[in-house]
Design goal:
Length: 267
């Protein structure tokens, strides 16, 4: 059975791959391809892949930025973006050189694109915990986003825990809320949180930290984290529950206008 003939775009990509040993020839073929077919994602992704193969993080970053701006719905693009973000979070097993290169690609992007990639990746993630981890990463790297994203993230976790089947306060969603999100949100003076929500968050924080403290040291629970049978996450005590709680109380005091010196002054 004969193969169907290549399109013009496929032929140009083929010639670029064929010329990989000659960097300038390969670049020339891809330059021609991108000039003739500027709306072809495969050509732009091939250019990115070529620069990635050669370890040229600056050129790879330029290609990635262009693809993000012009082809933001392409699945292959977001697969690559997720690999880069996982390297930033050190949650992927790659050799040291590959991990460093992908991190360098990210930091070679303009600040606006760095922020946009993180935010869009979080919005595209349907799994709650993963979405929250990406937004936390966004807030840590770009604190100015706390005003728009901080309280929204708190609401997401409160609703997720409310509609889950989890009945104990030590769980993955509460851990993210108490140990990762609240310390960031409470430090932001421009984030206005209604007092009834603050009281609710304070109660949940005390509940989480005290329950963590009173459980036997080294005790582990397995708590269902999703509707799928067999999907479990191991939950362990936070290393410093008192510090977690102290930091949250301090942050809450600023939001409520409390003077902690007077609150804890002995009579």
């Amino acid at each position: 059975m004969s193969q169907s003939p290549m399109t013009d775009e496929e032929y140009l990509v083929f010639k670029a791959k064929e010329a990989q040993k000659d960097e300038f020839a390969a670049k020339t073929w891809l330059m021609i391809a991108r000039t003739l077919y500027p709306q072809n994602f495969k050509i732009h992704f091939e250019a990115y892949s070529m620069h990635k193969l050669r370890g040229n993080e600056v050129e790879a970053a330029r290609c990635l930025e262009l693809m993000f701006l012009k082809f933001s719905t392409e699945a292959n693009l977001w697969q690559e973006v997720r690999m880069i973000l996982d390297c930033l979070r050190q949650e992927i097993t790659l050799d040291a050189t590959s991990s460093k290169f992908l991190r360098d690609v990210y930091y070679s992007l303009s600040v606006d694109i760095q922020r946009g990639l993180l935010l869009t990746a979080a919005e595209k993630t349907t799994e709650t915990i993963e979405h929250c981890k990406l937004v936390i990463m966004l807030l840590e790297m770009f604190p100015e986003c706390t005003v728009q994203q901080g309280l929204k993230l708190v609401d997401t976790l409160l609703m997720a825990e409310k509609h889950s089947n989890i009945t104990v306060p030590v769980n993955s969603m509460r851990r993210l809320l108490v140990c990762d999100i609240l310390p960031v949100v409470l430090k932001a003076p421009s984030v206005d949180i209604p007092h009834n929500i603050l009281y609710r968050l304070l109660h949940k924080s005390i509940e989480f930290c005290i329950y963590s403290i009173i459980r036997p040291y080294g005790f582990e629970e397995r708590i269902m984290t999703g509707p799928s049978s067999g999907l479990w996450e191991k939950i362990t005590n936070p290393e410093t529950p008192w510090l977690n709680l102290g930091g949250i109380v301090e942050g809450m005091s600023q939001k409520f206008g409390w003077d902690l010196g007077l609150v804890f002054k002995s009579k």
